[in-house]
Please model this.
Amino acid sequence: MLKWIDERLGAAHWARKGLKKVFPDHWSFLLGEIALFSFIILLLTGTYLTLFYRPDAAPVIYDGPYQPLHGREMSAAYESVLRLSYEVRAGLVMRQIHHWAALVFVASIVAHMVRVFFTGAFRKPREINWMVGVTLLVLAIGMGFTGYSLPDDLLSGTGLRIAYSAVISIPFVGPYLGFLVFGGEFPTEGIISRLFVLHVMLLPAIIIGLIVAHLAVLWRQKHTQFAGKGRAESNVVGKAFWPQQFFKSFGLMLLTGAALALLGGLVQINAVWSYGPFDASAVSAPSQPDWYVGWLEGAIRLFPAFEPTILGVTIPSMLIPAVVIPGIGFTVMALWPFIEQRVTKDRDAHHILDRPRDRPARSAIGMGGILYVTLLTIAGGNDVLALTFNVPIEAMVWFLRIGLFVIPVIGGFITYRLCTEMQESGAQPARRRRGVRLRRNAEGGFEEVSRD
Amino acid sequence: MKSVRWIFASFFVSMVGSLGLVVYYLIGESAQVEGILLGLALGGMGFGVVGWATRLMDVPTVVEEREPLESSDAAMSQMEGMVGQDAVTRRKMLLRLAGGASATLGAALAIPALSLGPRPGQSLEETKWTPGARIVDRLGNPQRPGDIPLNGIKTVFPSGFEGEADSQTVVIKIEPELLDLPEGREDWAPDGCVAFSKICTHAGCPVGLYRAEARQLLCPCHQSTFDVTTGCTPVFGPAARPLPQLPMEVDEVGFLVAMGDFPEPVGPSFWNMETE
Model:
């Protein structure tokens, strides 16, 4: 069999080279793999869902087994999601695994990105892969948004409406662009089928292409590694891809799938039947997006009522929090390797990773960014939090508005100090403390016994 | 041997989970059981494979040398010579024409995108409210001032456009002496009934929550709050414009009717919005 292939492709040489590829061993290198495996699970479960979902806004009267919605008018899309959830065997578990996998997909991308950022793995020669990664993050968020809008329930309709408001606020072309994207003034019948095409065809195709590019560049450039015995800028120390690393990664894929299967089976998510079908004149309270859009929702909530008219043009209040701030944020993120190169004047190639403490300024900025996004995400649920902790929503909003400028700075400062102190003390807080074995010697004192 | 027995057991658990799922699919329909069985099927095999890799594969650590990524100067200049050979670069005029043709081709290929939607025209500035339009509820019942309870709120539409998203309006009745409407709107509040666009001027959500004791309308999406007594001026949250008020009167048979469309655009502010 192998021979048959080799006679036609001459594959033995490069296949062996591939199997011998060296993988340095560190748990944090697996975060990106979890993202990849979540994506594979998304493709598998998503394909199954596509076979039952109808991207159709035409009104139908529900007569299925879910009694509370009996006789209600709803879109064929929403009805098909109810049918998929209640009448298709294994449909609900597939749908819930799909939704959970989407949350984990974005989460693992973010975790992977945080790892790459704090260890400086984006430095030359890996700027391209960093930018591909940022693009993948944006696309993953886009996948999530288009995906949870498809059921055409009341909650997702609210999300679409807010997106529409953001689009029509764009300078000069806003209303035209909004009408082109949505096919007219919101709410439109055509938007569901457009989102469907984006969600099941265009975006996945682009994501698959970029993942392939991401992995190809990684393969070509070889892995980074932490400093250690025998490790240098000029080598890679680790285990060969085959068999151990392959087995580990394959096992991780299965375990990712197992975790998602348990979540999808046991933890209810996006119970669209309880939200009801989309209705332009109703909204559920509280309404929150999926976690990875929470920061945007928070920015929209916290931005003050500011709508100045300059030279006869009113600047819509959505423009800055929903378009300008995300635009600047992702641009700075994508260009970070070049910004850092310019500031530090370090234009050399690096294959040995930084320890976060050795780059206190970068670590402080990273921590500030994480806190900023976290606070915005908290703001995205401020109504729920105000209710839960019984504080007035007004106090909550003002605390967050001010905190957004103060807390990241304090957090960054503390991080900087922690880094410099850890550099000096050489503390290893993340490393498990090992006991030492002592032996009482003939003189009555103690001496250490070496472990091995 | 004892320490690796669990690896064998893991594969066994996986098989039990998979077979269980097959059987359960045929007889049951609980998503919980399906999730657990699938979790066992995948997790058992996952633990087994990882255990195999970490406990039973004693493979050596290897060192791979990292060759420099950049090509040699000679290879680089050969490549540049290949790309920039005379046959290509000498034809300056042709190069420019080819560039121009590509740009026009791009425009030609992009233009069909305009079919995706109509031009906005006046549609963002207008709703279906017209002078004399009857104010009806979702089911089409016309409303008298007496049909709205004091401190009550009702979602209404122009007659014939029940449920129309752009025209959705709320009617609220409050004590007339509490009203402090802007100038020129004194007669827009028959019997203390005031009508405002239900679409939030911030991000377009339906402003559905009425705090009767504070006489405030609250948007559930982003907590913009509007003071009804002063003409729904924003008092808190991100909305910057008041909710447009619908001029409303009582016709000769006692029903609420609109005197015309909203004086300002409803819904979220947009680029190039006409404002006074």
Summary: Chain B touches chain A through 76 residues (CB under 8 Å). The CA atoms of residues 103 and 266 of chain B lie 40 Å apart.
